[in-house]
Amino acid sequence: MRAAAAVIAALVVAATMLLTLRLARGRITAVTAGLLAATAGGSPFIESFTLSGELLASLPAVLSLLCFTGYLGRRDRSGPSNSLLRGSTRPQGRRWPLVQPFFASNRLLLSLVGAGLLTGIAVLIKQSAFDAGLAAVVYLLWCERRRGLAPAGVLVAAALVPIVIAAASAARLSAWLYAVVGYRFNGDSLLNGSLTGRAHQFWVTLPAAGKALGLLAVLAAVGWRRSPLLARIWLGAAILGAIGGGNFHTHYYVQLVPPLSLLAAVGVRTLWLSAPRPAIAAAGAAAAATLALTIPVAWATPNEQAKTIWPADPHLVHDAALARYVRAHTRPREKVLAVWADADLYYLADRRPAVRYLWSRNVASIPGALEAVRHALATRRAQLVLVVQPPAKLDPSGRTAALLRHGYRRVGRVGDATVYRARTP
């Protein structure tokens, strides 16, 4: 899993460099974007080392914009228009005057279709990864007005193709729609829940985002006016996608790394060419702060790293010891249950969960999930129950706690978790 995350991250960095080369028109700027994405964008404070959906979806999203810039470049070479990619115009050959327009138009269409398909794939991986497609559509409508309606329609239609295929191949369409769309609006969306609670979650994660992306944000602000319009729209769309989840987990901010790195690279170029002293001082201070905050984490012990990166999830510090306990006190085919959630524990302990819901948000949001946990406790399906969060957190009625007392006995405590074993019938 870590190897897969590293490979995907390296591909995202490479794709960001290529996109910067297309948009910013400079190899040094492209290399700078790659260095920024691989260093500041790889900060542990936004969990960039994990194989998250945001990281996986970033690759097709960046590739989608690469295809879109291919459309813009070919369009500028095949006819008069407002050029985004300056210096890309080249004379058309004369050997096949009747055939060339056909191939040119088809290449334009293929670039749009490719951009749309990759956007659809990104959205299937993570619903918030619509940023590249939205940026392309907004750019077309903003710059081309009515002329942009047709290419925008082609891009959107192409994005729907993989989504329709996924829906059509699902075993149950209603279950698929709930998992992909309904669940987000039911429990994991900015559109539901307490606005005060959402604001608190954002405030709690803001320091981590600042430690990771503060330098990129300062550099992006320096180069904002000289940055390509498409890159600026892309950052806005990425921010919309990141906040749309509503829960503001720190790994949500990984989605901002590619557009911020592109804009920050332009900022570095601006600093090098003609930046005022205050801007240079601000960028230098941000760079020094980033190093001062990140290097101690790299040198810390694993437990200290976990406490720093996940201060609100103390059970992660003890999961290795808890997994060893579970392996030592259960047989391989016996099931265990974490109340309310400790998804990585099942993997580390190599034991199957007693219910299918691995996150507390699942139990809180999905209809029937809480009843499934209660049924598992009532039938003693789990040999061990590991209480890592108070039962009353998701079940204030007290029924879960009563079922736990009736069917299980307390046998020990590992870290912050209380361990219960099923009573003999």
Which regions are unreliable across 5 or more consecutive residues at pLDDT < 50?
Answer: 80-100
- The beta-strand count equals 4
- Share of helical residues: 55-70%
Q: On the 0-100 scale, what is the average pLDDT?
A: 88
What overall form do the CA principal axes indicate? globular
* Overall structural domain count: 2
Order of helices and strands: HHHHHHHHHHHHHEHHHEHEE
The amount of beta strand, in percent, is under 5%
Main sheet: strand order:
1-2-4-3
Q: What value does the Rg take, in angstroms?
A: 25 Å
Strand-pairing-aware structural class: mainly alpha
Terminal CA distance:
40 Å
What is the strand and helix layout of this fold?
Blueprint: H1 2-24, H2 27-38, H3 53-78, H4 99-125, H5 131-144, H6 149-168, H7 173-186, H8 195-222, H9 229-244, H10 257-274, H11 277-299, H12 302-309, H13 315-329, E1 336-339, H14 343-349, H15 360-365, H16 369-378, E2 384-387, H17 399-407, E3 408-414, E4 417-422
Parallel strand pairs: 1-2
Antiparallel strand pairs: 2-4, 3-4
Helix pairs in contact: 1-2, 1-3, 1-10, 2-10, 3-4, 3-5, 4-6, 5-6, 5-9, 8-10, 8-11, 9-10, 13-14, 16-17
What descriptors fit this protein?
425 residues, 17 helices, single chain
Give a quick rundown of the structure.
The chain is mainly α and 425 residues long.
Structure characterization notes:
The chain has 425 residues and is mainly α. It folds into two domains: 2-85 and 96-296, no CATH class; 315-422. The chain starts with a helix and ends with a strand. It contains 17 helices and four strands. A hairpin with a 2-residue loop joins strand 3 (408-414) and strand 4 (417-422). It has a four-stranded mixed β-sheet with strand order 1-2-4-3. Helix 13 (315-329) crosses helix 14.
